[in-house]
Amino acid sequence: MSTEQRCDWGQAAPSMIAYHDTEWGVPLYDDRKLFEFLILEGMQAGLSWQIVLNKREHFRRAFDGFDPDRVARFDVVRMQKLLADPGIIRNRLKIEAAVTNARAFINVQREFGSFQRFMWGLVGNKPKLNRWKSMTELPAKTEASDRMSKELQARGFKFVGSTICYAHMQATGMVNDHLVDCFRYRPVQELARAQVPA
Q1: Would you put residue 105 in left (φ > 0), alpha (ψ -120 to 50) or beta?
Q2: pLDDT per residue over 18-57, tens digit each?
Q3: Structure pTM?
Q4: DSSP readout, 52-110?
Q5: Mind telling me the catalytic residues?
Q6: What does DSSP say about strands 175-176 and 128-129: parallel, antiparallel, or unpaired?
Q7: Among 13, 44, 120, 135, which residue carries the largest CB count within 10 Å?
């Protein structure tokens, strides 16, 4: 394990370290990956991200690789099967929301050409590059996440409150919330400057 300085939350379990070091904050423009994070962030509501990470691979199998077209076709029988699956978070409202969100996701793709074009458009098509020195400075939500939440809810998405939306923005690199003394801060900053949505 690296001894380099990390954000406080990314120094615990190996799965959290790997996630912090390779994924969190990296600008993401792939629709299926954005869908995966949207569903997982919703599943996290009221729980820790560690719990979600521990179940992530099982979630991928249970939700057909987070293929929105397949998840959108989940029926009552399939949802009942998910509710009986101990490998995922068995919350009826969250499982129903995942199916609802898959259908809303497809509608957004049809309207905008891609989900990433819609989502990145909500944040001005570029990552916000923050310079936090302490975890206490990080907001739980912002005006941008408020706006994203309202837009998603207006299109029928569930479990997309402003706090969930901000966590989604952090995870997918719409904001760089690595602390300035974290070894991932500069690499993520450079990625944010170099990459632009297609």
Answers
A1: alpha
A2: 999 999 999 999 999 999 999 999 999 999 999 999 999 9
A3: 0.94
A4: HHHHHHHHHHHTGGG-HHHHTT--HHHHHHHHT-TTS---HHHHHHHHHHHHHHHHHHH
A5: 19, 41, 49
A6: parallel
A7: 120
Q: Scan for tokens 């941008």, then name that residue.
A: 144
CA-closest candidate to residue 121, choices 42, 198, 24? 198
CATH of segment(s) 8-194: 1.10.340.30
Q: Which residue has the tokens 């570029």?
A: 126
- The first and second tokens of residue 60, run together, are 């991928």
Closest to 187 (Cα-Cα) out of 49, 23, 12: 23
Question: Mind listing the pLDDT tens digit for each residue in 67-100?
Answer: 999 999 999 999 999 999 999 999 999 999 999 9
**Domain-by-domain residue ranges, the chain?**
8-194
